[in-house]
Amino acid sequence: MSDLDLRLLRYFVGLAEARSFTDAARVLHVAQPTLSQGIERLERVVGTTLVDRGPRGSTRSVALTEAGQVLLPAATDILQRIERALQSTRNVAREAPLAIGFGSSTPRDVTSRLLATCDRLAVALSLRHVPWGAELDALRNGSLDLCFLQVPENFTDPQLRVVTLRRVSRVAVFSRDHPLAGRDRLELAELDAEPIIDAASDRDFWIVNPRPSRREPHTVGPPATTVEEMLAFVTAGRGMAITSLSVAQAHGGAELSFVPIIDLDDVVLVIAGNAQDRRLAVTALLAALDAAEVVK
To answer: Which residue range or ranges hold the HTH lysR-type domain (predicted)?
Structure first.
């Protein structure tokens, strides 16, 4: 069947509908010899006669053989399916660009994978930087179509459609002259007495409250509203903070020290959209990112 192409099926369906080589050639906008040769080629591919041409040749009204009658509905269905697929693809291309949010903690390789996937799917997008804590509101009010989030492992929201991309460990961040700076790793209990920068968003998760030791975290303010604010406070020596490894990878430098916390649950990187949004572009993009092993 490697020799079968869609033109042959179109010729066959067109001839079956017109019942005449002359009329079918006119409707299909091809020369009559081209149509006749195409039908003959299709018959060679399937290995049987599909058209009863009658004794007077190709200009006479034609009828389908029994084999042709079997092939006709299947050929029609194939052509209709392909046309629907092409139309869906055209619809995706005509849709307004998807507004996709990312934050300071979104890993760069993930946004690179997003852009490559959108190019492959011919999905138009606009990337928008979203302040820490504003992501969920932007998704719910429709100002974003999709957004990258870092959430606890047990995160659920019935209003959102969520695809998990990877787990990211949490780390402690200190100013370079802090006594714990430069450690290879540490346990959460070692931070119980440390002043920790307060968080304006997802507060209990990022300051780890309650603590396994039942000690109340000693927070210092003002609460950081962005990753950049948090790191500025830490650099100035106001306190330490707990953040994700992706922040360390994006913002590491001589002024800061990031140390793995070995007994603290990971954060989960997801991409989320509105649960009711079933547009083809959104569904295709989420499915592609879910299947991309490079992101896992």
So the answer is: 4-61
Which carries the bigger pLDDT value, residue 80 or residue 172? 172
Q: Is 31 left (phi over 0), alpha (psi -120 to 50) or beta?
A: beta
pTM over 0.70? The answer is no
Same fold? 6-93, 170-265: no
Residue 164 near residue 186, CB atoms below 8 Å: no
Question: Which residues make beta-bridge pairs with 167?
Answer: 268
Fold for domain 170-265? D-Maltodextrin-Binding Protein; domain 2 (3.40.190)
Distance CA 245, CA 16 (A): 65
The values of phi and psi at residue 212, to 5°, are -55, -30
Instruction: Give the domain ranges of the chain.
Output: 6-93, 97-162+268-295, 170-265
Alpha-carbon distance of 88 to 49, in angstroms, equals: 35
Distance, in Å, from the CA atom of 265 to the CA atom of 262, rounded to the nearest integer, reads: 9
175: helix, coil or strand? strand
Say how far apart CA 16 and CA 177 lie, in whole Å.
Answer: 84
Q: Which two tokens stand for residue 194?
A: 């440390």
CATH architecture for the domain at 6-93: Orthogonal Bundle (1.10)
Integer angstrom CA distances of residue 93 from 99, 114, 196, 281: 15, 17, 48, 9
pLDDT exceeds 50 at position 1: no
pLDDT in tens, 65-75: 999 899 999 99
Instruction: Point out which residues pair with 271 in neighbouring strands.
Output: 148, 163
pLDDT at 57: 45
